[in-house]
Design goal:
33% helix; alpha/beta; TDP2-like; 8 helices; 5'-tyrosyl-DNA phosphodiesterase activity; 193 residues; magnesium; 2 domains; single chain
Length: 193
């Protein structure tokens, strides 16, 4: 059994200290095997790295470089923590809107973390921590592009998708790829409840 948690910790300045402390206490209480965070700032990263529970529980960390560049306007990004095991390989990749990689829009694309883990000698799984755009059209384009281009057998998308069960366009995309993907959210949470 492997326990996952994903959390957009929000990079805004509303109740930052209170919110960050509450997030850290929750993570300490749960001590999940895999933690995927979005909108992580340099300040939060410093707090996290000073946590005793993080050090005592042998967490490995993958950090996006823009988190460390705290002089930039949007100096936040994703990070991934894994307890007692480390990635076989990882990369920070642009999250494109379409297959036209030469367009100017692509150069400003968001990024995601992809990390490959060995399940046993011949089987791997790629965990992908992403934060989709909050603009509907861009989010749909990115999701569509992602499903078209992912050519791995075992992967898990984790993160802030910026849509829910009532977002029709996104649900149509999930429906279109229903035989290629499995939406765990729908297994765990009943929209009718």
């Amino acid at each position: 059994l492997c326990q996952f948690i994903t959390w957009n910790i929000h990079s805004d300045f509303s109740f930052t200290n209170f919110r960050y402390q509450a997030i850290l206490k929750t993570l300490q209480k749960l001590l999940p095997d895999i933690i995927c965070l979005q909108e992580v700032t340099f300040d939060f990263l410093n707090l996290l790295l000073n946590e005793i529970w993080l050090q005592e529980n042998n967490y490995y960390i993958i950090i996006m470089g823009n988190i460390l560049d705290h002089n930039q306007k949007q100096s936040y990004g994703q990070l991934m923590l894994t307890k007692n095991f480390h990635a076989r390989a990882f990369s920070i990749c642009p999250l494109y809107l379409s297959e036209d990689s030469s367009s100017i829009i692509q150069q400003e694309a968001k990024k995601y973390i992809i990390a490959r883990f060995e399940l046993h000698s011949e089987v791997t799984i790629d965990l992908i921590n992403l934060h989709l755009n909050d603009v509907d059209e861009k989010r749909c384009q990115t999701l569509e592009y992602f499903f078209k281009t992912m050519n791995m057998q075992n992967y898990m998308l984790i993160g802030d998708f910026n849509f829910g069960d009532n977002h029709i366009k996104e649900q149509h995309i999930l429906q279109k790829y229903q035989f290629q993907i499995h939406d765990l959210w729908k297994d765990i949470y009943d929209i009718e409840e």
